[in-house]
Amino acid sequence: MQQNKRRISMVFLILGMALLMIGFSTDNKAFTFAAIACVLISLITGGRWMRPRKK
Description:
Distance between the termini: 26 Å
Shape: elongated
Number of helices: 2
Largest sheet: none
Helix content: over 70%
Strand content: under 5%
Order of helices and strands: HH
Number of strands: 0
Radius of gyration: 13 Å
Structural class: mainly alpha
């Protein structure tokens, strides 16, 4: 299950970066907002930023 989450996280990150480049090149805000959503989904599914820190 952990491997699937990492793969999904990577796919959403790449998709978000591609949408961001399309949004910048066409000056379309819809692509930019979709890119932000994809990157946030990538962060949530990756889960690295939500783990407690090791002491």
